[in-house]
Amino acid sequence: VADASIPTGRETVPDVLVRGVVDRVAALRENLGPGGRIAAIGVGCAGLINVDRGIVRLSPNLPTWRDVPLRDRLRDALQRPVSLVNDANAFAYAEGRYGAGAGCATGLFVTLGTGVGGAVVIAGKLQGGAHGLAGEIGHVSVDVDGVECPCGGRGCLEMLVGSSRIIERAERKIASGASGAAIRAATGDGEMTTRAIAMAAEAGDRTARAVFAEVGEIIGIALAGVSNFLDPDVIVIGGGVAEAGEVLWEPLRRTFDARVMAPADIRPQIRPSRFGASAGLIGAARFAYDRTTAA
Ligand SMILES: [Zn+2]
Asked: Ligand 1 center to residue 115 CA distance, Å?
């Protein structure tokens, strides 16, 4: 019907976020028209979420947050039912029901963006694990001696291919003598983005293509390992970085095929997300609707 957004940063405290969301919801209400009403509010948030208690236990994107009762704070402020779910689970909820993973028996859902999120669906149901941590493919280590990760690990996938790491890869190459002209031209006056690197790569720039070749190979290695463990029939990949196109997908698929244990006839299908940037929104909203109408 309508959408709106507010920026958040690593220093954003719960009070500021809640106030921002409440303001936006109030503004969006005016778009509902006569008879329109808000049935429920769904929230997708990166990090370790306790769905039953509606608590953000911790979030890598919001490092100051600890055990924030976000669901109840929004419910009190908005006077509507609210549900809170991990953002990658919201993504899987949308793509697994209506999107690129619809009808899968065993699905692996991966989001590539600032962070790397993941979720697992088995027999049509999201699997949270014992504590809601299942599916955290971003914190599978793919580099034994890699950089430390805030999660406690080292060389986690997210530390190698999260969007800021992709930008660092490009900057490192340029600093050590690779041509940065095409990436700079695509960047314009602003700060370098993965989108700009992808545009340069798509246009044939060698530096940008080398960045995505590395990133695609690393993701392919991680997916092959997780695929050996899970045996999915479908892997759905979304998030802003996934929109880089073939410059990412080709090395990803090639590495996956070379490394995965499953023979070709039973390999999972690797598909781009159907809903793109809206997948988390759709999934969080549907999750809230289902929980509200089931209650
Ligand atoms: Zn980690």
From this structure: 10
Residue among 95, 143, 89 nearest 117 (CA): 89
Cα-only R_g, the chain: 20
Per-residue pLDDT band at 295 (split at 50, 70, 90): low
pLDDT digits (tens, 9 = 90+) for 148-188: 998 899 999 999 999 999 999 999 999 999 999 999 999 99
- C-alpha 140 – ligand 1 centre gap (Å): 7
129 φ/ψ sector (left φ>0, alpha ψ -120 to 50, else beta): left
Cα of 3 vs centre of ligand 1, distance in Å, is: 32
> Average pLDDT for residues 31-54, to the nearest whole number?
90
Rounded to the nearest angstrom, the distance between the alpha carbon of 183 and the centre of ligand 1 is 29
Tokens of 66: 């600890």
User: Has residue 249 got a pLDDT over 90?
Assistant: yes
Give the Cβ contact number of residue 165 at 10 Å: 18
The token pair at 102 is 């619809």
